[in-house]
Design goal:
The protein has 322 residues and is an alpha+beta fold. It has a single domain, classed as Metallo-beta-lactamase, Chain A. It has 9 helices and 17 strands. The strands form 4 sheets. Strands 1, 2, 3, 4, 5, 6, 9 and 10 form an 8-stranded mixed sheet that branches. Strands 11-12-13-14-15 form a 5-stranded mixed sheet, with no helix packed on it. Strand 11 and strand 12 form a beta hairpin. The longest helix has 15 residues. The radius of gyration is 18 Å and the shape is globular. The protein starts with 33 loop residues before the first strand and ends with a strand.
Length: 322
């Protein structure tokens, strides 16, 4: 995802018949923010949040399906009252016995962007990182699932009038196909993606902090970078397998849980529309009724969940909250 509307209340009171099936949204303090998989922890750190019109996100889709599934999509993933899907822009901090990995870097601060919410913003991300116990100079690896603007912003920060790596001692794992695709201008409809190269990617390369990887990359302790092209040419995921507990951080292979039920829907944000559909279908098929916890880059609320089958051959995303 790389567009945004100005931030407003994400969780509204749902009116009409759907309201009876929707429980009160939990307060932020009641929602999980840390998950444990064997010897590995995953911590969510928010950069910003906001809604996006479902009709724009899923052009041509039968959007009545969102309302029909409001019992499990609302209030965290969809607002029936406004017809908006709801996004987090966030990092996942993955800690192993030996390494700290930051996956996804949000919009960043002080950057020229096309959306009003992200343009030259002054957000509290670094304070949020510190509150989660993360010191930027103690991060070992940074992984952007892809190079859209809302995933690379905190790669760098402004210091003494120039862009420098935010995580000064980290190795940034840049995918070769993603970098090549960016240079060809093939990363989707957002023209600011090229601007993001100048302020959020090139400075990391110039500083000598980038490792250009081509394929899978083993971080160790059961954590591995695995390519999943489709959304963009070099889109990549992170898998965890520690003491029998498994998880996958799928980046933008999924933007909203409705795509678990309808991976065939066209998604505005996919650079390769057919490739995005194919990658989603493979992802959903491979993880349905499997004991693997799924994290997507933009899922809010309870965030983590599993893909489960239902009657009629349908699938849905089931969070710990139900």
């Amino acid at each position: 995802m790389h567009n945004s509307i100005s931030r407003r209340a994400a969780f509204s009171v749902v009116a009409g018949a759907a309201a009876a099936a929707i429980t009160r949204p939990a307060r932020a303090a009641e929602l999980p923010s840390v998950w444990t998989f064997g010897d590995v922890t995953v911590t969510r750190v928010i950069d910003m949040q906001g809604p996006f019109p479902a009709a724009r996100a899923f052009p041509g889709a039968p959007l009545e399906e969102l309302d029909a599934n409001a019992s499990w999509l609302a209030p965290y993933f969809y607002d029936p009252a406004t017809k908006n899907i709801l996004f987090n822009y966030q990092s996942y901090v993955v800690k192993t016995p030996r390494h700290t990995v930051v996956m996804e870097c949000g919009y960043g601060n002080d950057k020229v962007r096309g959306s009003a919410a992200a343009n030259m913003r002054k957000g509290p991300y670094l304070q949020n990182l510190a509150a989660a116990g993360v010191q930027t100079d103690k991060v070992d690896f940074v992984l952007c699932s892809h190079f859209h603007t809302d995933h690379v912003g905190w790669n760098t920060k402004m210091a003494d009038g120039r862009w420098v790596p935010t995580f000064a001692k980290a190795r940034y794992l840049f995918n070769k196909n993603e970098l090549d695709g960016l240079m060809r201008g093939g990363l989707g409809p957002d023209p600011s993606t090229k601007v993001a190269y100048e302020d959020s990617i090139k400075p990391v390369i110039d500083a000598g902090n980038a490792d250009i990887i081509d394929g899978a990359f083993d971080i160790g302790d059961g954590v591995q970078v695995v390519p999943m092209p489709g959304h963009t040419p070099g889109h990549q995921t992170l898998t965890i397998n520690s003491r029998g507990r498994r998880a996958i951080l799928v980046g933008d292979a999924l933007h909203n849980p409705i795509e678990v039920m309808h991976p065939e829907w066209e998604v505005l944000f996919d650079a390769d529309k057919e490739g995005g559909k194919a990658a989603r279908k493979r992802l959903v098929d491979a993880h349905t009724d499997v004991d693997i916890t799924v994290f997507a880059a933009h899922f809010g609320g309870p965030t983590a969940g599993k893909i489960v089958s239902e009657k009629g051959g349908k699938r849905r995303f089931k969070t710990a909250a139900g």
